[in-house]
Amino acid sequence: MKFYTIILLSIFSIPSFSQHDSLDVKHDSIKIKKDNRFKVAGSVIADSFLSVPGDFSAMGHTISSDWKRTALYTAGIIGLIAVDKQTTGFLHDKIEPNIDYSLPEIKSAIPHVIGTDSYIVYPIIGLYAGSLLINNEKGQVVAVNAAKSLAYSYVITQIVLKTLSSRNRPQRKINDDKPVVEPFTKNPWDFGNYDNVHFGHGGTGTSFPSFHATSYFAVAKVFQMEYNNYWIPYTFVTAVFLSDIKSHEHWVSDLLVGGLVGTIIGRSIVISSRKQRAKRDSTVFKDDPKKFTMQKQLIPQISNSMVGFHFIGTF
Hints:
Residues 149-274 form the Phosphatidic acid phosphatase type 2/haloperoxidase domain. InterPro entries: PAP2/HPO, PAP2/HPO_sf. The structure is a single chain. With 315 residues, the chain is mostly helical. The chain has one domain (2-314). 54% of the residues lie in helices and 7% in strands. A 3-stranded antiparallel beta sheet has the order 1-3-2, with no helix packed on it. Helix 3 (52-64) packs across helix 10 (252-287) and helix 8 (211-227) packs parallel to helix 10 (252-287).
């Protein structure tokens, strides 16, 4: 492969030209030969652990980089809670009755992966296994990042945010005249009902935000950014979510805030992952000069408009 850089040394002036630095070339094109399956897999796993601090740093940066935007979103969330009785009532009465389909049941052998969760978890496992088999680094990175987004969603939403908010779930149907059956409520401001940390689905004070909305949107954001496609990942997770919508006992604000948190999680993981891989590649390039060796040739070049040199680097 030849890399050509033309240096034009004009007698009267040095014309400007766009710079195409060889360091900007993707590392895959610089390597003499592709790493073996175990080395690629090891690098992907190592990067996933090394990027953990960066993941949370990116999440924090998203919130703190623009306080006006954060304040605007906070005000919007409060507004959503204020109208939750109306919007959730509309969801129960008008939308849910018109969604009447279900996906075939997948029996899961993984603990706590139940119902439609299998449609999210098993494709990630399949992507990783297939990418490992054919030694495809990109697929492994996407699968690992998606798995991280599920783990972060569980910790951040299910364990931390639900415990801090301790909001009770809305009763079905919220607009009927039936008495409230605890731990459900018809009051959208029914927060602060702490009853231990709930590691599984349901229970008192486990409504805000929705873990499923968080995790589904986090995974969708990872796939969207990694493959530069909105329609497929978001359409897929939405179809999976709606197929079991009647089991998601949440206020509308729970769902929307869960989607927002999931988007931040997925975006932060991808950004951090890219930085970590770039850091690793630059380190390998620096520490192993054999990755980049170049033979140089300098050839005089004369034309009617200028005099210069033709520089050829072969590597």
